[in-house]
Design goal:
There is one protein chain. About 30% of the residues lie in helices and about 30% in strands. By secondary structure, it is of the alpha/beta class. Among the domains are: about 270 residues, no CATH class; about 45 residues. Strands 5-4-3-1-6-9-10-12 form an eight-stranded mixed beta sheet. A four-stranded mixed beta sheet has the order 16-17-18-20. A three-stranded antiparallel beta sheet has the order 8-7-13, with no helix packed on it. Strand 3 and strand 4 form a beta hairpin. It is globular, with a radius of gyration of 23 Å. It starts with 5 loop residues before the first strand and ends with a helix.
Length: about 475
């Protein structure tokens, strides 16, 4: 006898106040968010097998998910309210770069709003988890996949000119490795009405880039709205292995480009969802009608017994090797502080926009380099949570990094489940995880990675081991 699958969904608004620090781009000139393009949301799916095994999947439209002590606090509070074990709670981010700063920025304007906003997120996420858990009712689940070629590899060899040698730049590279798959998990109520649709796609939400001064979910916001308007179901977007994947409209800083990409992926998700049967059927002749000739009137009849209602979750701490480096020196730390002061003085003096942009880029790059340097010098390994969930005949694997698409594709193609989601940006983020072959090429993602080249292979092996455990 199959378990009785149950599911519930809930959502809250997490749009920050206008004026909050809006610092996610080295090329930007502005500091504060000056308006809202589309509201930001937090959406939660609760699922149970009806026999004590429960999971919660929370997704919010921000750059990063909670991690470390923040995630531990959220899990403890949710567990106390719902009884769902902490390691059965997943917190993911869509990775929009047009949201608010989630840590102290390298400038002062709007920074005073960051801490109060972050504090408010904890209560909102916990409350939404409770609401989704209370909303659980009998349901059915199944999955499928389609494809949408609006993303591309973003590592492209630049054309050398007088100022710079040839290097890896960030731009759409259709000839590079890309993952166009649109994964879909459909959850229906007992009467067959769509309750929730989960979408997995790999592409950086970086269309609303440095010149954009509005809070925005980027393309995932339009994707979600497209799915919901056409199906009536609540949509969760679970970002894929987007470490080296961009959209074909990236960095344009135009809302219409984000809408274009979001609609394309959303429409493909809807097409796939429409063909998913959470209760498999076959057509049978119900009765005949005599007209110019005998006609058979058919109707769908359920086949195959009760749908798979299994719910399982396995969470494992894995030691992933770090690409070690010497700790930053006092002079390197002091240099970053001097660059910050220089930028602040230029703003006070009303320097030309081009000069402010150059100064902003210098301090941002130096800050990022310092951050990676510090991470690489903290021991030989980092303990990372690998989390795998099973919902019926579908599976979801998530890790706290920005993984390259090759990693996700290998895991999905070798998974024992016919529908498998692979995601980064979950339960914290430890920056980029390139493939081993990428390191000699260099580029932004390699520069920003704290990991040893062996990390990608370890990630594939550990992910597949968890999936096989779920299947067994």
């Amino acid at each position: 006898m199959s378990a009785q699958f149950q599911a519930g969904v809930a959502r809250c608004d997490i749009t920050p106040p206008v004026g909050i620090a809006h610092g996610n781009w080295s090329a930007q000139v502005h500091e504060r968010a000056e308006g809202v393009d589309l509201p930001l949301t937090c959406t939660v799916l609760a699922a149970s097998d009806g026999d004590g095994e429960e999971v919660l999947i929370a997704e919010w439209e921000l750059l990063y998910p909670p991690g470390g002590e923040w995630l531990a606090e959220i899990r403890q509070r949710v567990t106390s309210l719902t009884g769902v074990p902490g390691d059965h709670i997943r917190a993911s981010a869509t990775h929009t770069h047009a949201g608010p700063s989630l840590s102290t920025p390298w400038f002062e304007a709007g920074a005073e709003m960051v801490a109060p906003y972050l504090a408010s997120l904890t209560d909102r996420l916990v409350g939404t988890c409770l609401a989704a858990h209370r909303a659980m009712r009998p349901a059915r689940v199944a999955g499928g996949a389609g494809a949408c070629p609006v993303n591309a590899n973003r590592r492209k060899h630049s054309v050398p000119h007088s100022r710079q040698p040839e290097r890896i730049m960030m731009a759409p590279n259709p000839e590079g490795f890309s993952d166009h798959q649109v994964g879909v998990i459909r959850i229906d109520s007992e009467n067959g009405q769509p309750l929730a649709i989960l979408v997995n796609f790999a592409a950086h939400p970086t269309i609303m880039a440095w010149a954009n001064r509005l809070i925005s979910p980027d393309y995932p916001g339009t994707l979600r709205r497209t799915v919901e308007s056409l199906t009536g179901a609540t949509c969760l977007f679970l970002q894929g292995a987007a470490g080296n994947q961009d959209t074909l409209r990236d960095y344009g800083c135009r809302a219409e480009d984000a809408r274009w990409v979001g609609r394309k992926v959303g429409l493909e998700a809807v097409r796939v969802a429409e063909f998913i049967e959470t209760q498999p059927t076959q057509l049978q002749i119900d009765h005949t009608v005599e007209s110019s000739w005998t006609m058979g009137v058919v109707r769908p009849v359920p086949v195959g017994g009760p749908p798979d209602g299994t719910v399982r979750c396995i969470s494992k701490q894995v030691a992933v090797p770090i690409w070690q480096r010497e700790p930053p020196t006092e002079s390197e730390i002091a240099h970053v502080e001097e660059l910050k002061k220089h930028l602040a003085n230029m703003r006070v003096q009303g320097a030309p926009e081009a000069e402010i942009r150059e100064a902003n880029m210098q301090v941002r790059r130096a800050s990022l380099d310092l951050r990676v340097n510090q991470r690489r010098s903290q021991g030989s390994h980092v303990q990372m949570e690998f989390q795998a969930m099973r919902l019926g005949s579908t599976a979801l694997v998530a890790i706290p990094v920005e993984p390259f698409a090759e990693i996700g594709v290998e895991v999905k193609s070798r998974s024992p489940f016919s529908t498998t989601f692979f995601s980064g940006y979950t339960n914290g983020v430890e920056m980029y995880m390139p493939t081993a072959e990428t390191y000699p090429q260099g580029g932004y993602e390699v520069w920003m990675s704290p990991f040893d080249p062996a990390a990608a292979g370890i990630t594939v092996a550990e992910s597949l081991a968890l999936l096989n455990q779920l299947k067994d």
